[in-house]
Write a structure and sequence with these properties.
single chain, alpha/beta, Rossmann fold, 7-stranded parallel β-sheet, 8 helices, globular, binds NADP nicotinamide-adenine-dinucleotide phosphate, oxidoreductase activity, acting on the CH-OH group of donors, NAD or NADP as acceptor, NAD(P)-dependent dehydrogenase (Short-subunit alcohol dehydrogenase family), KR_dom, Sc_DH/Rdtase_CS
């Protein structure tokens, strides 16, 4: 018997899909045959993505969702499950990444980072869990980071938020894995996106990053998509509560 990598016909939600990694993950899931509900704070920011997926023969629809709004998370997830009749895959990608030196961190900056990157991820997992536990099947993939397991200067709030994502992923795996749910995290290294372009376009910063990646290159969205599609497929049915690092060896040092 061969491992089954197919997600054909599965129903997926991707948060923060208007640009960057989320945009690419939605396209990858759709190309692999999933019906994808794409979400971001503004519905119109998703028009291009929905059209692109349709033009490539896939199926997608857009839902407005600010992951800081806990009530809205539940409403949107239930709406998707009702529109498609089920919910098989949730990719919690929405996140903020702007760095700040520890001494400059304000309460507002800290709260923003934690609200989106940690609290938002948890309540999306909870909303997904409510639906998936009932149907006895589900795959949740939380987009963490390599800096969930190592530190980076100016990353105090970001690293703390992503470390928290790893921990909540483990706990939810303990609670839900015997009931048909797999929940995992992926930990990318630096990926070139609108969120990182300004920093990665600065030669000194880019050189510092490359010096830390044994594989010798910045990551691509496709590198992350490979991990996410795998963790969304039956091939990973015994994989739960783990962090799959997509970091070119950064954290192996
Ligand atoms: P990005 O280009 O800045 O895109 C961020 C996405 O998150 C956008 O679609 C944005 O949508 C959405 N978002 C932000 N705040 C939101 C909110 N309150 N509610 C809903 N959606 C919100 O970021 P990225 O670089 O693709 O990063 C995506 C994820 O990968 C993040 O979790 C990030 O921490 C993680 N990651 C990135 C890298 C990297 O190097 N790029 C490395 C490791 C991990 P709207 O603004 O349209 O709502």
């Amino acid at each position: 018997m061969q491992p089954n990598f197919s997600i054909q016909g599965k129903v997926a939600i991707v948060t923060g899909a208007s640009k960057g990694i989320g945009y690419g993950l939605a396209k990858a899931l759709a190309a692999a045959g999933a019906k994808v509900a794409v979400t971001a704070r503004s519905r119109s920011s998703l028009d291009a993505l929905v059209a692109e997926i349709a033009a490539e023969g896939g199926e997608a629809s857009a839902y407005e969702l600010d992951v800081r709004d806990v009530a809205a998370i539940r409403t949107v997830f239930e709406q998707v499950a009702s529109d498609y009749g089920r919910l098989d895959i949730v990719v919690n990608n929405a996140g903020l990444g702007e760095g700040m030196a520890a001494l400059d961190v304000t309460e507002e900056y800290w709260d923003d980072m934690i609200d989106v990157n940690l609290k938002g991820v948890f309540f999306c997992c909870q909303a997904a869990g409510r639906i998936m536990l009932e149907q006895g099947y589900g795959k949740i993939v939380n987009v963490s980071s390599q800096v969930s397991v190592v530190g980076i200067p100016d990353g105090v709030a970001y690293c703390a938020s992503k470390g928290g994502v790893n921990q909540l992923t483990k706990v939810l795996a303990l609670e839900w894995s015997g009931r048909g749910i797999c929940i995992n995290a992926v930990g990318p290294t630096f990926i070139y996106t609108p969120g990182t372009a300004e920093r990665l376009d600065t030669p000194e910063f880019r050189d510092q990053v490359l010096a830390r990646i044994p594989a010798g290159r910045i990551g691509t969205i496709n590198d992350v998509a490979g991990a996410v599609v795998y963790l969304s497929s039956p091939a990973s049915d015994l994989v739960t509560g783990t962090l799959l690092l997509v970091d070119g060896g950064w954290t192996a040092q």
